[in-house]
């Protein structure tokens, strides 16, 4: 196969929480380098690290004040170079986060732009006059509150779709594009293997910046859903590909909220030559929307099957999927879709097999391979994430009571996935000898790498087996996907087929036994390759959260 990234198994690192090498309580680049053997041993071949650039850390590095310097807390550029070299020495590849929808308000570009109305960089950001003494329009920021902030220096407002410390760049301006491309080439010439492109769906703004309809009379109206994937966005992407990406042997993955499976081909269809993959959001929103309506709703399995199957089928032979169920913006998947209390091991591994063996490049978020869970928040003071804090303010404004807000943020908050990686049962899970910047999840004594490494039946070793299986069996990389039992509310089953070789992945996503129609699935005579129970069990019955992988 021509494209190395199709065979890759990817691992996402949140540097602040991965491994602290110098015991100041903050994860760092040398910490990542120290753990490369762990990743290699697991079978990882591609690493994505979240932003490690200079940043005042309003949004944990997603607010960049210098694209060509390393955040002091994370180390130096020499540390980065050594990390890259050590990744390559192990035959792995490294991609970094490209955050160019916005910069930090401390970036020199923004400092210049905000200095005066006639500064040469004024138009690098999106400045507007107020309307009758108020914000230029009624858009709400993704992190709540107005999407505009007033700057007294020049008497105008600037647009920020995220926090007010993350002003949006004006991508209409060719000078902005050129400056960003120069920066991108600088990293690519250094030898990185590609980019995960942050918030790409938000880069194109509706040019009139017109008010949202406001039937409910809200102070500010959520606007981002309407402006996601706005007309003309693909022109930016084409330009970026032509000017930069297409000149390198790299992989590009866009963070693409707002693309439906039907639109997927425009983004990653090979004949268009745009991005290699996108992180689509449909399965994530299914869960989030379900949570909004019914807080205790777990997994809507049929909804999930519909979404994954549409992406699998519509991109078949056309483009490539990025497969993921966790990242640093989401709560832990086993806490949302599984059953941590009764079937932690079974549900974490059933989820793993289900998404990991579809067609596409699987991404594992740090700690997912251990079945790390959501953490415990005793009060609203326990939240660190800027998004959670601002959400709490907005919920208070809506009159929601504290207990309600705490419950909502506890199950949806991004801090859940940002607790320190659990390496062993030493203090702070072995992440750091110092007090970590964010407290470790109290369950690190039970859930940690050291313990799971020794246990052949652990979640970690299940992931290791999945990765090995995928590397050994071309059908699991290239085989086409077909859904079985589409209307079964408890069982997710599908085949992968390549010429005369076939695999079946079957999983029970309920805490009850489920009968399997062996005839319907034609399972007789198949060979069991991997399962998440100690014994084979009965062909015709799946135990709670049991998953099995067969081959013909
Ligand atoms: O997230 C952006 C992101 O999730 C949006 O694209 C999405 O549309 C929105 O949250 C609606 O749910 C990225 C990073 O992953 C995140 O950590 C950053 O906070 C954010 O960009 C700003 O850089
Ligand atoms: Ca450190």
UniProtKB/TrEMBL annotation:
PANTHER family: ALPHA-AMYLASE FAMILY MEMBER (PTHR10357), OLIGO-1,6-GLUCOSIDASE 3-RELATED (PTHR10357:SF178). It holds the Pfam family Alpha-amylase. SUPFAM superfamilies: (Trans)glycosidases, Glycosyl hydrolase domain. Gene3D superfamilies: Glycosidases, Golgi alpha-mannosidase II, Oligo-1,6-glucosidase, Domain 2. Its EC number is 3.2.1.1. This is Alpha-amylase. Residues 12-418 form the Glycosyl hydrolase family 13 catalytic domain. Belongs to the glycosyl hydrolase 13 family. CDD domains: AmyAc_SI_OligoGlu_DGase. The keyword Amino-acid biosynthesis does not apply. It is an enzyme of class 3 (hydrolase). Keywords: Carbohydrate metabolism, Glycosidase, Hydrolase. It catalyses: Endohydrolysis of (1->4)-alpha-D-glucosidic linkages in polysaccharides containing three or more (1->4)-alpha-linked D-glucose units.
């Amino acid at each position: 196969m021509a494209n190395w990234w199709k065979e890759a198994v990817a691992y996402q690192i949140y540097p602040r929480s991965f491994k602290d090498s110098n015991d100041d309580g903050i994860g760092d680049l040398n910490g990542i380098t120290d753990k490369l053997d762990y990743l290699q041993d697991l079978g990882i071949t591609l690493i994505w690290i979240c932003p490690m650039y200079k940043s005042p850390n309003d949004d944990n590095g997603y607010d960049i004040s210098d694209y060509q310097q390393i955040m002091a807390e994370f180390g130096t550029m020499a540390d980065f170079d050594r990390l890259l070299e050590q990744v390559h020495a192990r035959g792995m590849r490294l991609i970094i986060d490209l955050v160019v929808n916005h910069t930090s308000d401390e970036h020199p570009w923004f400092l210049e732009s905000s200095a005066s109305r006639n500064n040469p960089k004024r138009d690098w950001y999106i400045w507007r006059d107020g309307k009758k003494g108020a914000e230029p329009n009624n858009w709400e920021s993704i992190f709540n509150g107005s999407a505009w902030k007033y700057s007294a220096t020049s008497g105008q407002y600037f647009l920020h779709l995220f926090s007010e410390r993350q002003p949006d760049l004006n991508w209409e301006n060719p000078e902005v594009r050129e400056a960003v491309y120069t920066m991108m080439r600088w990293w690519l010439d250094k030898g990185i293997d590609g980019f995960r492109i942050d918030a790409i769906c938000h880069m194109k703004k509706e040019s009139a910046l017109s008010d949202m309809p406001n039937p409910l009379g809200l102070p500010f109206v959520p606007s981002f859903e309407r402006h996601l994937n706005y007309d003309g966005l693909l022109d930016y992407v084409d330009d970026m590909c032509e000017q930069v990406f297409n000149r390198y042997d790299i992989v590009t993955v866009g963070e693409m909220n707002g693309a439906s499976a039907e639109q997927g081909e425009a983004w990653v269809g090979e004949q268009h030559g745009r991005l290699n993959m996108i992180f689509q959001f449909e399965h994530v929103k299914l869960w989030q929307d379900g949570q909004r309506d019914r807080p205790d709703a777990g997994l809507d399995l049929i909804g999930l099957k519909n979404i994954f199957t549409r992406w699998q089928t519509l991109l078949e032979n056309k483009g490539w999927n990025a497969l993921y169920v966790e990242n640093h913006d989401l709560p832990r998947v086993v806490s949302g879709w599984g059953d941590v209390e009764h079937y932690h091991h079974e549900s974490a591994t059933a989820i793993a097999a289900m998404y990991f063996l579809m067609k596409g490049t699987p991404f594992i978020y740090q700690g997912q391979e251990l079945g790390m869970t959501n953490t415990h928040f005793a009060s609203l003071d326990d939240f660190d994430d800027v998004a959670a804090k601002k959400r709490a303010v907005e919920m208070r404004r809506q009159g929601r009571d504290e207990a309600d807000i705490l419950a909502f943020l506890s199950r949806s908050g991004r801090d859940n996935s940002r607790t320190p990686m659990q390496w062993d049962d030493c203090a702070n899970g072995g992440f750091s000898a110092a007090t970590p910047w964010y407290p470790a999840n109290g369950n690190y004594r039970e859930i940690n790498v050291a313990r799971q490494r020794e246990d052949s039946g652990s979640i970690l070793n299940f992931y290791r087996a999945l990765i090995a299986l995928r590397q050994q069996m071309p059908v699991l990389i290239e085989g086409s996907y077909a859904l079985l039992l589409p209307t079964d509310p408890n069982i997710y089953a599908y085949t992968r087929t390549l010429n005369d070789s076939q695999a079946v992945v079957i999983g029970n996503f309920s805490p009850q036994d489920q009968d399997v129609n062996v005839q319907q699935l034609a399972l007789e005579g198949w060979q069991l390759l991997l399962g998440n129970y100690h014994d084979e069990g009965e062909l015709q019955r799946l135990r709670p959260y049991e998953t099995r992988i067969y081959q013909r």
